[in-house]
Amino acid sequence: MAESQYPKHPFLLSVPEVEKALDTRIDNGLSTNQVPKLQEQYGDNELDVGNTIAWYTIFIRQLCNAMVLVLIFAMALSFGVQDWVEAGVLAAVIILNVGIGFWQEYRAEKKMDALRALSSPSASVLRDGKTSVIPNAQVVPGDIVLLKMGDTVPADLRIFEAMNLTCDESSLTGEAEPVEKITTNDIVVPGTEKPALSEGDLGIGDRINIAYATTIVRKGRGRGIVIATGMKTEVGKIAASTNKKQRKAGRSMSTKHGHLQPVKGAGLRTWDFIGKFLGLTEGTPLQIKLSKLAYILFFCAILLAIIVFAVNKFNIPTEVILYAISTGIAIIPESLVAVLTMTMVVATAVMRKANVVVRDLSALEALGGVTNICSDKTGTLTQGAMIVKKAWLPPSNVYTVRDSTNPSNPTEGKVTFSPDDGKAKKEEKKRDYDQERTTQAIKFDVPESENEKPKQPKTSEIDAEVTPELRLFLHATALCNLATVRYDEEADGWKTTGEPTEIAIQVFAHRFDHGKKSLEAKGWKQVAEFPFDSSIKRMSVVYNAPKDNELEYSSENSIVFTKGAVERVLDLCSHIGTGDAQQPMSEDVRDRILDQMTDFASQGQRVLAVAYKPWDGQYSAPEEANKGDDSVRAQVEKNLVLLGLVGIYDPPRRETTGSIHTCAEAGIKVHMLTGDHPETAKAIAREIGIIPRNLGVLPAGVAESAVMKATDFDKLSDEEIDNLQELPLVIARCAPETKTKMIEALRRRGAFMAMTGDGVNDAPSLSRADVGIAMGSGSDVAKSAAKIVLTDDKFNSIVAAIQEGRRMFENIQKFILHLLSSNVGEVILLIAGLGFRDQDGFSVFPISPLAILWINMVTSSFPAFGLSKEPASQEVMRKPPHDRKRGVFSNQILWDMIVYGILMGTCTLMTFVIVVYGKYGGDLGKDCNRKYSESCIPVFRARAAVFALLTWLILLSAWEFKSIRRSMFRLNSDNHKKFAVFHDLWSNNFLFWAVLIGLISVFPTVYIPGLNRNVFKHTNISWEWGVIIGMSIVYVVGIECWKAIKRHTGILDDHKVPKSAWSQGDDGGRRERTMSFSLSRSFGRTKSFLARTMTSSTAGNPAADDRQA
């Protein structure tokens, strides 16, 4: 904030003075022409706090990688024995490896920064008279910012409109108590009655007409003018003066924690530093696991070198050192980290296209292990495009909106009136689900209307007209509402802003020309607002009526309007109805209202109650309101008069049912946690397939707890929840605390859950869940607490993210198997090769160190990256979530690695033996590890054959590993073409060309003079190609046989998701049923091996029954 820009600090100025200083207007905002100039003048609205990783940190991390350390040692040894060619090549490889790794990780960090920016706090600003949402970085001084509960304040603002606006400034001032904002500039110096006249009179915490950047709106709403951005804000000034880092516990070096604490603290700090650079303490779980693997392999390389030295009785001439270098290089998958980094970057890009922004790479790995999804209803499972379908006014008047599908257009459709609708409702026959569970009376999962068709009463409907009762009801719904509805002449259509529920109610009021703006234009003036609070589920406003108003209400008195959850509003009502129809609230009346609510809710409608109260005299907020408006609110909202109920329908998204069924097939159970009425929740849950239409198809224990109210669930102790056969599939009237309790209940059962949320109060559950998923339309606090943000709020985007997470996990398994199995083969070849002794008694390596390096760095890398780009397999969403404890190193991967490594090592070893002993009688020459001579021809030809064969086997295995179990010749079971193998191999173009080019690249490395004998220590071959081709066939046949054994015996198989009488997302039995309700809990409580494999069954993991079988 430029001091010369304002005559005084903005908190001392009036709103018009701030407007003038910044050349803006509070009713229109900045113009589009002003914004670019201001952005150029002030720059991006960002804090320079150094959160990004420095390039040199990335470089040192790459240099300290275990893979590179082995190469550095090998290079040093090569220089030591004066093998200049090998040392030079190793130096080049180190530079190349570190350079590529550095560039990839640097790009990955930049991409993650960009992705985090997509989900970073945004600002709602007014420009050219239109409200738009922009990234915080684009906010400039003079912008008019709109604030609501849960928002992060984007910049320092001079508040000019505040409705119970309260901000949490603890991060800035240290004060735990939220600060209520005002709009005037007549602030007095604390402890005196003297008005503040200069900036030094007040600290930043006392400038209560200013909202500060990075603080959070805890209550209410408001608007303000941006007075400072970026490093010019108060928090920016603090960031510029200090940038302290939080130190981990136990790192103190003070003796006040004990005499040994300085030693302990220094040791832990040293380990933090080393672990950070070596990748052992920071990074995603998979990255840390692979870093640990790298160092295990590093020590294995040292062990192998010791073995080589021991075989030669620690007589270590140059030849033995070269052999040790070969074995050390052979065990290290040099390209593993680079391929992993590229894979994750590609996966985040793919998810971004699917409207999923990954804020934390650990979530990318975790998605594949999700066993349960706890999802909101509104806007996620449903369209969030709400339409008022029905309104009930006492005693029994029902208004119905017909022929309307556009939630924004009040002119579409018509409203009808049924005066006898309430009387016509009959209590339906209660169904005996216990009787239905008998084999004689069982009824399958079909719509209730098919099992039992109650007679529908005939009703007479007429076009609705505005009556005095309806007029008051419309005033309440329009004024107790923050949404706006207007017709845009330029766009030739209706435009709306606000929450979907409030938009629906405002549109309903507009159908009768009773919109909020039109009423306020007639003189209705708001004097107080008590915003919606998720803990009490209601909102109230206080208005002063104009003279000669339509309601014939006295302008000398204020009037209170309230709307909210039916039960919460009913508790505050003393009467119902208006005029002659008004009567006291009694138990019978209350029951009748609740019956009407249940009727609406059973049709899938969200039901809200609308009430009012005449206020005696003009309302003015008492002094207690400054300390906290809870007591004031209680006074305002008591003794209300119920005006009616409104039923809002939010149609399910078309794709939701199919996505839920996909989850069921994948062993993932879907729970719906919603704030709606239980009947509404149950109706929608039935429609989208979360619960069956007939709960009788479920086991008795499961059916009883399938749908619960949050109050009932919250009353249960942890022990009682753990004793439930299954956790609820639907929890209605859900509070934020209920979500947290559900997370803990799932975690105790060993589940791995994803939790969605959008509000401020959802932040604790989002941060506590294994995978927190925030809605793009949600609050900034929720986004900051989540690891993933859905930009489109759709449930199927969650499923797409899980599928991508599983695809990435499978592909990581494939390229790890591809890289490590070749390392196992190379080690077997070289260890067995210790027995090949030349004329001087030194071991002759079957393949040179540089040849191994070439294979590991060049030949393997591109096919490995090609495997990372493999599309999702057909079975990826037909098997249960992967074991999170074992990660990518499952039993199948470990066994495959050993089997294929032995097979590869055996084939290459036999090739060396056939060439040297079959053709040349076992002549191993002299000094063949260092240079070429006539006596080394047999060894050099054998090495060329081994090099060519090993290259081909590694390349062919890349095609084989497209599927770990299916035959390479029938990768796609749906492809029945005669030469399907060619189509399947071509499906991954990158992998196809990587393998094909790799196969061809063998020839120049074998035949180019100088390169072959001086670098790779092999020479030209001829008849050996027959052996190479033969051994390649043997290798492929061996892999196919091992795959066939796995398929036919079922060993090492991923368990299938169990079949059941009903599956979530089922459409009445036409789909294959694949869900998952465990019929027995006894197995899950034992400590046998069988029980351990079923752990996630008790967690609600659908896969467990199959593991039991």
TrEMBL record:
Basic and acidic residues: bias regions: 420-437, 450-461
Name of the protein described by the UniProt record: P-type Na(+) transporter
Molecular function as annotated in GO: ATP binding; ATP hydrolysis activity; metal ion binding; P-type sodium transporter activity
Catalyses which reaction(s): Na(+)(in) + ATP + H2O = Na(+)(out) + ADP + phosphate + H(+); K(+)(in) + ATP + H2O = K(+)(out) + ADP + phosphate + H(+)
Enzyme class at the top of the EC tree: translocase
Protein's organism: Neurospora tetraspora
Gene3D superfamilies cross-referenced by the UniProt entry: Calcium-transporting ATPase, cytoplasmic domain N, Calcium-transporting ATPase, cytoplasmic transduction domain A, Calcium-transporting ATPase, transmembrane domain, HAD superfamily/HAD-like
Annotated Gene Ontology cellular component terms: plasma membrane
UniProt cross-references to InterPro entries, sorted A to Z: ATPase_P-typ_cation-transptr_C, ATPase_P-typ_cation-transptr_N, ATPase_P-typ_cyto_dom_N, ATPase_P-typ_P_site, ATPase_P-typ_TM_dom_sf, ATPase_P-typ_transduc_dom_A_sf, ATPase_P-type_domA, HAD-like_sf
Taxonomic superkingdom: Eukaryota
Domain Cation-transporting P-type ATPase N-terminal: 9-83
Biological processes annotated in GO: potassium ion transport
UniProt topology in membrane: Multi-pass membrane protein
Listed EC numbers: 7.2.2.3
